[in-house]
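Re: your question from the hallway

Yes, I did run it. Sequences:
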Amino acid sequence: MSLLTFFTRRNKEPDTPEPDMPLVPTAPAHEATNSPKVLMRFLTHGGAAVEVYEPAESPKYTLRCLGCDYDFSSTTSTYVREDANAHASNCRAMPKPTA
Ligand SMILES: [Zn+2]
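Structure:
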């Protein structure tokens, strides 16, 4: 037995085709097509986003902090925008873990 035998790569597995992988990553569940449209975002001190949504099912603008789940709604977009900005200025929540 020569030394070359130890270093010769043997391919015992037949070539198997790659599993079908989507070329474009699929959208996460919270980005479904029927989710409300985000009008603006504010950044908290911890790096989470506070999102302001346009009215969808009710005539109210809403905001949600994606770090601490704080929410607020009003029919006046100015109130929601100001509250989102004020919350982002005080909130120290970090983005939620994904796993
Ligand atoms: Zn928050």
